[in-house]
Amino acid sequence: MNLRTLFLKVSLYFSSHSFARRCVSTVFLISLLFCSVYFGGVYGAIGLMTLVSVLALYEFYKLAEHMGGRPRTVMGLVLGAALPILLFYSAETDPEEARRSVPALLGAAGAIFALGLLLLAKRKIPAWAKAFSTVFGLLYIPLAVSFYALLAGIFGMDGVWLCVWIVLAAKFTDIGGLVIGCRFGKRKLAPNVSPNKTWEGVAGGVVFSVLGSAGLAWALGHFGAWSASFPGFSPLLAALCAVPVAGTSVVSDLVESAFKRIAGDKDSGATIPGIGGALDLLDSLIFVAPVGYALAEFCIFS
């Protein structure tokens, strides 16, 4: 078999197997995440999360238009880019002052979370949410991402590495849910919203997240990611913290699926092979962000 034939066969395989494309994209994105943090430090992490947030917000506004909303896209994107950067700068400059703003931010995130649960139950967008789709998009995506920015601003590189842990704990849930659900899934979780998700997949995702998160916490400590002032958290604590992260990531994923279902779109975009758009990438991380911040503040860094 010559090199050209091998290349054609590999290309055909990846073009016809979404799971393989998803795996390759996941490996690439995780590598990009680690490279951004390792080489770019705090500012590389903030730049990456702001970029992904703005792309996801743009895709959300497109979904909102399909649902009957009329978002002011340009204004929303400008504000969406500014919000995490300003909160990061505020937290880096005066951590205690930034902490005082957290209850209000958590309250706003809680309201959006409650609306997301209502959306799952009713599968219908309230008229007022369509009318205020610009603000809703800002509260749904950039505000959530801002909790990652707060972790980076308040705790420095320790906070950044914790953001990496939170992101991967959520993505371990996705991977476990996909692997176990495809093999053993029988009982549908939310067939009207996401037909492929099963309770068996959710259980597998939580187990994957617990084990993977414990291993990741050990690896970050072993390779010296944490500073001397914070030697990291034990694999046992990481495993315990992974449970609420995994559970929240499933709900976060379902809410984004409900938006797509109502809008009549399969994916939010086609930027990432096997995954979809930036919003599809961020889906499970949106509601996880405030939960991860709360765990960091009250359990991990306390």
Plain-language structure description:
The chain has a two-stranded antiparallel sheet. The chain is globular, with a radius of gyration of 19 Å. The N and C termini lie far apart (60 Å). 45% of the residues are buried. Mean pLDDT is 85; it is low at 6-17. The longest helix has 49 residues, at 18-66. With 302 residues, the protein is mostly helical. It has helices at 3-16, 18-66, 73-93, 95-122, 127-131, 133-140, 142-184, 199-222, 235-263, 278-282, 288-300, and strands at 188-190, 194-198. Helix 2 crosses helix 7, helix 4 (95-122) crosses helix 9 and helix 7 (142-184) crosses helix 11.
Describe the structure concisely.
By secondary structure, the chain is mostly helical. The protein has helices spanning 3-16, 18-66, 73-93, 95-122, 127-131, 133-140, 142-184, 199-222, 235-263, 278-282, 288-300; strands at 188-190, 194-198. 79% of the residues lie in helices and 3% in strands.
Count of discrete alpha- or pi-helical segments spanning 4 or more residues: 11
Share of helical residues: over 70%
Counting DSSP E segments of at least 2 residues, the number of strands comes to: 2
Radius of gyration: 19 Å
Quaternary structure of the protein: single chain
Element-by-element helix/strand order: HHHHHHHEEHHHH
